[in-house]
Every structure is written in structure tokens, then in C-alpha cells.
Design a protein that fits this description.
27% strand; 3 domains; single chain; Beta-Lactamase; 5-stranded antiparallel sheet; Phosphatase 2c, domain 1
Length: 386
């Protein structure tokens, strides 16, 4: 090679080697000194294989590939391949090789230094692996949290056994839910509550666990039985719990509650709601009992008023306690909310069904309504037939 050519080859960020039919290296470009740290005469003959490759097995593999390429008529369709080469200082260089047939039945390999790119790829792969592991750990934690939440929820069979017939349609938006339902029986009284906590997913689920503990404490331990009194106590307890530090910013977490106390001695239901209604279907007529216009936990500086309403029970009365997730689901031809009017129509059309059938019907109707739309909120509907 001329001095000019050598000067050009020395500055390239590529290696050029020529191998003869015996597997000996006949030429190494001057750029080998800058890229690998070896003098070119060190790499001639068997020097290339001995100095740049890590072990005997790797040398044998590369030589076998080289001899195989000699047997091919053309290398025009040869796929570029990556190899890790050792440097004179014990470091590593990643080289992307392209091989072609040279004059006098030789092979010419042109290798591009891709070390920087490979390091970035490896760094990215490591980050991806760490993210995958973190994601797996997070999902495992959420799945475990889901089992905890399910353990807190009452046994649906106990609800069914307490009434003539009942169902609970419980469909979290995510793995865990901000909606939950409550059941407790004391003597001839049955306490039923459907609760919608602020948010959904993990934040909503944490709120639901807190709210469940407070509700259980108020009803079971303190023995309160009047729904409006229970709501007042819930409001006080939740506000105190979420705002322990006076110097900290006021929190605006809370919950909407639909609460009923069935008294089978007086054959009545006493209802009170915090921003949640209750529906009664009697003789194919829907009677809606609106909740009080105050949530639990919010607006501590506002004087709230929770009122109870007593209803005389009749045979085949069917009551529905529900959160807003079902009615707020988008879908249909115009991608609008299902809304409460359509929800009532669905309930009326299902009155000839057993309660288990109603649950399946409502679930099917919701899926049919939203089609490809994502579920936008937790869904909870409880139906009770007297």
C-alpha cells in the first residue's frame, strides 16, 4: 500500500483484514493500532486469531466460518455479523463485519467499530430489564393487595342467605378497586352499604381499606344502627383520620355511600345516602331515593345534614345499591355515558329474572354498551329481593 493509502486507512474507524485459503491473515489495515492497540505485524498470520479472540473455542468457530465462506461462490448475500475482539490493553471492542471475496481467492473482511453503540444498547437493555423487574414486582404487589382486598370484602353467600335473593356485580377497573360493599347482621337487622371511594386502582383501594375499617368500627364496635347517625360518625372519623396534622394541607379524599338497614322484626328498611341514591322496584315501578347532597370526608367546613328514610317492606320488593361506575361508562353508537335512565330501563327489563340471572344480564349489557371502549371506573351494583 502507498503512504497516502496507509494514512487514509489509519484514520478510518474501520478495520480491514485479508485472509488466505490457509486461514492466515495476509493484511491488516493500520487502523488496527488505533482501534485495537496492536501493531499490524503482530496480527499477521495466526496473530490475529490468537490475540483478538478470547479462547480456543471461539477461534475454532471463527475459522470454521471463514473456511465455509471460501467454499461459497458468492458472498453478496452474506449477513453482517458482530464479534467481540480483545484489545492490546485487555479491553473489548465490538466490530460489525462484512465479508467479501478478494483477489487471488482471498477473503476481505471490513469491520466497523460499533463499541459505543453496543454499550448504549447494553445500557438500554439493562434499564429495560430493571424496568421489567420493577413492573413485575409492582404487579405482584398489586395482585397481593387484591387478595387482601378480597379478604376484607364480605362473603356474597352470606348476603344471599340473609335475603330471599341477591347478587353483587363487582368489577374493578384495575386489579384493585376503590368501590367496596359492606354486610353485617346483628339479630334481626342487616346492614348493607355500597361505597365509592375517591379514585380507583391502588389509591382507591387504599381508601377503601381505610373506609371499611371505619365503617366496621362505627357499626360493629360502636353499635350505631340509624343510617344517618352512621354517616355522621363516618364523616367525623374519616375527617379526623385523614387530617391528623393540623399544619398540613387539608386533604380532599372521601367517599360516597349508599347505606340501608333492614329490620326484619319491624319489616322495614331505613336508608340514608351520601351522594349515592338507592332504587326500589315495586310492582314494575321504579322509586328512586336520592342520597343527601354531601359526601363523606369532603367539605369539613360545611355543616352537613344526613337524613334517614324509612320504607315498609313488601314481598318481592327489589332494592338496588350502586356506585356511579355502571352509569358513567361510555359506549353506544355515539360514545356517550350509559346514564341512570338507561340503567333503570335495564333493571326494569330484568325483573322477571332471578338475581343471579340479573347479574349476568347487567354484565352482558355493560359489555355490549361499551364495545371497544375502555372501562372508565370501578363498577359495583348490589341487588336485593325481599
Amino acid at each position: 500500500m502507498s503512504l497516502v493509502t496507509d494514512a487514509i486507512l489509519e484514520k478510518l474507524n474501520s478495520l480491514i483484514i485479508v485472509v488466505n485459503q490457509d486461514g492466515c491473515v495476509e493484511y491488516v489495515s493500520p487502523s488496527a493500532k488505533r482501534i485495537l492497540g496492536f501493531e499490524t505485524d503482530q496480527l499477521m498470520g495466526e496473530g490475529w486469531w490468537n490475540l483478538t479472540l478470547n479462547n480456543e473455542e471461539e477461534r475454532a468457530d471463527i475459522k470454521a466460518l471463514t473456511f465455509q465462506q471460501f467454499k461459497q461462490d458468492s458472498l453478496l448475500e452474506a449477513v453482517p455479523y458482530e464479534r467481540l475482539l480483545k484489545t492490546a490493553t485487555g479491553g473489548d471492542k465490538w466490530i460489525l463485519w462484512n465479508t467479501s471475496k478478494g483477489p487471488m481467492n482471498t477473503l476481505v473482511g471490513i469491520g466497523h467499530d460499533i463499541t459505543d453503540r453496543k454499550k448504549k444498547e447494553q445500557k438500554l437493555a439493562l434499564k429495560h430489564k430493571l424496568l421489567e423487574q420493577q413492573n413485575k414486582d409492582m404487579l405482584d404487589s398489586i395482585q397481593y393487595a387484591s387478595r387482601i382486598q378480597e379478604a376484607v370484602l364480605p362473603d356474597i353467600n352470606k348476603i344471599k342467605n340473609a335475603f330471599k335473593d341477591a347478587f353483587v356485580l363487582y368489577q374493578p377497573k384495575d386489579v384493585v378497586s376503590g368501590d367496596y360493599y359492606f354486610f353485617y347482621k346483628r339479630n334481626n337487622k342487616v346492614f348493607i352499604a355500597v361505597v365509592d371511594c375517591t379514585g380507583h386502582g391502588v389509591p382507591g383501594a387504599l381508601m377503601s381499606i381505610i373506609a371499611h375499617g371505619i365503617l366496621k368500627d362505627v357499626i360493629v364496635k360502636k353499635g350505631l344502627e340509624e343510617p344517618s347517625e352512621i354517616l355522621y360518625a363516618l364523616d367525623d372519623e374519616l375527617h379526623l383520620l385523614l387530617n391528623k396534622q393540623k399544619n398540613e394541607e387539608m386533604t380532599y379524599d372521601g367517599m360516597d355511600v349508599s347505606l340501608g338497614v333492614f329490620d326484619f322484626e319491624s319489616n322495614t328498611l331505613t336508608y340514608s345516602g351520601a351522594f349515592r341514591p338507592m332504587l326500589l322496584i315495586r310492582d314494575m315501578e321504579i322509586i328512586e331515593f336520592e342520597g343527601n347532597r354531601f359526601p363523606i370526608g369532603f367539605y369539613a367546613d360545611v355543616k352537613k345534614e344526613f337524613v334517614s328514610r324509612k320504607i315498609d317492606l313488601q314481598v318481592n320488593d327489589t332494592f338496588y345499591f350502586f356506585t356511579d361506575g355502571y352509569c358513567d361508562q361510555f359506549g353506544g353508537e355515539f360514545k356517550k355515558k350509559l346514564n341512570r335512565k338507561r340503567f333503570k330501563e335495564l333493571l326494569l327489563s330484568a325483573q322477571s329474572m332471578e338475581m343471579d340471572e340479573q347479574e349476568s344480564f347487567l354484565q352482558y349489557a355493560l359489555l355490549n354498551w361499551r364495545q371497544e371502549e375502555l372501562q372508565v371506573d370501578d363498577v359495583l351494583v348490589m341487588g336485593i329481593r325481599i
